[in-house]
Specification:
Elements: H1 2-16, E1 28-38, E2 41-51, E3 57-68, E4 71-74, H2 75-78, H3 85-91, H4 100-114, E5 121-122, E6 127-128, H5 140-153
Antiparallel strand pairs: 1-2, 2-3, 3-4, 5-6
Length: about 160
């Protein structure tokens, strides 16, 4: 009888102690975008945030339109053909360099990991990502698009 009681107690403890964490966002998929100009061409950066039923950010996807060889595409679609690895290597912050999509993945993971953008240092002219390693790109539009998506997802606490 003691063994059965102990087994029931262990099962109850293991299943009953699951910690459910609640986040600060409404469940759903949210999108933010920012238009910008670079070298005379206009582009759009988009960020898509997925929030689960517990209010937690589960994914962040950032991409930007891009004109390469007179073809409209996106930087993620170009992958290694975007050609940023050598530039990031030469800047000296990333040993061996990283391609654009690899650097954006660092930002995407940080948004999920920290459940937002509190880690970003803002100033009037640029977004500084000194608080994370592996990013040499100017991330202003990426962060701004993500901020717009997160603003839609926030739970309205003022009623």
């Amino acid at each position: 009888m003691k063994k059965i009681f102990l087994l029931i107690l262990i099962l109850f403890t293991l299943s009953g102690c699951e910690r459910i964490v609640e986040g600060n966002y409404k469940e759903g998929t949210y999108m933010g975008s920012v238009e910008y100009e670079s070298y005379g061409s206009k582009y759009v950066t988009t960020s898509v945030i997925y929030v689960d039923s517990n209010g937690l950010i589960k994914s962040c996807y950032i991409d930007s339109t891009y004109l390469k060889d007179n073809i409209n595409t996106t930087k993620k679609t170009l992958g290694d053909n975007y050609g940023m690895k050598e530039t990031s290597k030469n800047i000296g912050n990333i040993e061996g360099g990283k391609e654009w999509y690899e650097q954006v993945e660092v930002i995407e993971k940080k948004v999920v990991e920290t459940q937002g953008l509190d880690w970003v240092e803002w100033d009037q002219t640029n977004t500084k990502l000194d608080s994370i390693s592996g990013v040499t790109i100017d991330a202003s539009t990426y962060i701004e698009a993500t901020k717009k998506a997160l603003e839609q997802a926030k739970i309205n606490t003022t009623s």
